[in-house]
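Please annotate the following for my students:
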Amino acid sequence: MEAIDKFIEAQMRKQQIPGLSLAVVKDGKLLLTRGYGMADVELNAAATPETVYQIQSITKMFVASAMMMLQREGNCRWMMS
């Protein structure tokens, strides 16, 4: 666990991430949950495993990537105009 903490904290500093919540799941079993840094810098609120983040438009990139992967695999068909 200490190695995970050190890695996460180093990456947060390097990438200037104020806070994050982590969950590690294997075979449907929750192995680890942890909050790092701040969930809200202005309110000085710590991140916890239960923190809900407003991700807003960032999901568009993930959906577009998933659709392209499905199309490449032949599992999704749509027409582009």
Remarks:
- The beta strands are 19-26, 29-40, 45-46.
- The mean pLDDT is 88.
- The two ends are 50 Å apart (CA to CA).
- Residues 59-73 form the longest helix (15 residues).
